[in-house]
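Schema walk-through. Below, the input block comes first and the output block second. Nothing else is stored per chain. Lengths vary across the set, and this one has 208 residues.
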Amino acid sequence: PRPASVESIRQLTFEARLNYLENAELGFVETRQRLGHFEIELENSDSFSADFTDTYENLTQAFPIATNVTIPLGRYAFRDVQLQYSFGPQRPYSGEMSVKRGSFFGGNRTSVGFQQARIEVLPQLSVEPGLSFNWVDLPQGDFTQHVASVRVSYSFSPRLFLSGLLQYSDGSDSFSTNFRLRWEYAAGSEIFIVYTEERDTDVFDRFS
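--- output ---
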């Protein structure tokens, strides 16, 4: 609905969802997730949202979630809350800032992120930075998972486009690159040149 009494608010959104997965062969619930979503969209196209998630997982097999940290099989129930502010696409810069906090497989998880960002430097040049910080405390061990990325896109012409993605993850000590050149040499006909590389090393050690 749109509140008539507040001019700065364009729309209010309320949403609830239920995801349910059952093992039909063995007759038990594998995953159940209840989600509640509330969003305020402003007249300037910015928006603020709050999400509540209630999750149940029945793990029949242990799985490694990080180096030297394995989640044992068992039944887990955890909840989290996420707050997010999104800058509208009408700005020369856009993106989503978020913070999440809650329980997680018998422990706790805190996440802070800046995602889907876009900065228009020139009409033909844009930069898309991204940051994600995750702190996880579990009975089996604590770990962090931080990811930094940047995508640069440049349009030489409506038919010639170059983009490059650089990404670093401290959890896996990996640094990856991806470059793609797209050329539409005729209507409906395109040529792509792609280069991808990933290194399992801490790239910052080279400069220490």
